[in-house]
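Appendix B. One record, verbatim.
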Amino acid sequence: MKITYKTEIKPTTEQVNKIKQNIGTCCWIYNQYVRLNTQLYEMRQRGLLDEKQADFVSANDFAESIRQKLTAGNDLFWVGQCDSYARKITLINAEKAFKRFFQGRSNLPKLKKFNGQDAKLHLKSKKDDAWIIERHRVNIPTIGFVKLKEFGYLPIDEEVLSGTVSCEAGRYYVAVTVEKDRAKMPASDKNTVGSQSDISNINDRIEKIEKKIRREKRSLDRKYASRNGSGCFANIEKQREKIDKLEQRLRFMQQDCWHKAVKFDRKDV
């Protein structure tokens, strides 16, 4: 069975720049693909396309057009610096999003934001650059060895099938997928159940965090209003990062409360 482990990493400044560059390139490719097919879809709805014109561009055709532009040596040289597997997975995900939309299972795909939580970098092992997990660090293809913030969590003796690198609220995470034998899986501790007081305490802390987020957002609005097209933009970025960290903390607390509530409800089942 396939199991995914996720933990926080401590990349250097150079590694952070490389991660941001790769994630930014993948976001740009995704948005270009979405813009093109959205425009073709709207033109087809208006009846502006004839029978000879294609109304949808597949991921393979779009990737081939990018390769041709890279071979021609135009201004898209920086796209070639991004990992090829990451670009491929990005286009495959974008194509799947459009197929779900055509099947009526979702809305029209939207553009990705670099600072959004959905921006991830998909990487796979290569012959000369593979995923290697050690006790205190992990080798990420195209990134290099990166220190771990939590030792001993990632499996050292398992082969990594694929992995992702993501950025949330200024913190960087790595998630690896390994093939693990079900018989070797440790038994879960069914006695670990959240009590009613634990759930109540978490709810109280959630309310305090939500109130603090609203206060910080009002502060951000005042910074935007006082700027008036001039002033230091760094203060706004710091305030945004502060809000992102609070929202991330809120998500973790909500997940913890949900898990404790589910275990508490199933205690007597």
